[in-house]
Amino acid sequence: MAIRTLKMNSLMAKELLRFTPQYSLLKKMKIGLFFGSFNPIHTGHLIIANYMANHTGLDKVWLVVSPHNPLKDKSGLIHVYDRLEMTKLSIEKAENIEVCDIELRLPVPSYTIDTLTHLKNLYPEHDFVLIMGADNLQTLKKWKNYELILRDYQVYVYPRPGYEATEFENHPSVLITDTPLMEISSTFIRKSVKDHKDIRFFVHDKVHEFIDSKGLYS
Hints:
The protein is an alpha/beta fold and about 220 residues long. It contains 8 helices and 6 strands, in the order αβαβαβαβααββαα.
């Protein structure tokens, strides 16, 4: 696969600062990339991100908001900028968790290997780690250029209900973490809103207010 190298000039660098995590530009770091539709982001996502940022040796975790996962049904996805805003609201006071919207600037659908390559071109000084659930590890062979992901990047895996070990669990690039098991899902949140159930404590208070104010998922 041909890789187009991004040549940055000063103007492009200024534009980049407008939409990329800012504090992570200051020094060499090991950054975990937690990709997701975040439709919507919930406390389970935040607990996983917090665990990864504080218990695995990562310096930071970037929540990478994806416009559309090519392996998932697009129906039911609300506008990506609403999902982005909720993600930002949920981590306002987090010191080592940031939001990255780089996939909003890349072709859709979003392929992880393309985003990883793009970020590595932008930040060659950083080491990027891919964060994924055990369910994704189980279907990794369906991902575009999954061999390159395993060759060039570490993968930190968090447990998911009902998903057992796979052929990749002993791969040298894969680390199975002790992240607390989260059974909450965005599907559950969306269904709860549609059924007029209270979602407080399942999502950040500001996310709850945002969903309610815009009538999302109802």
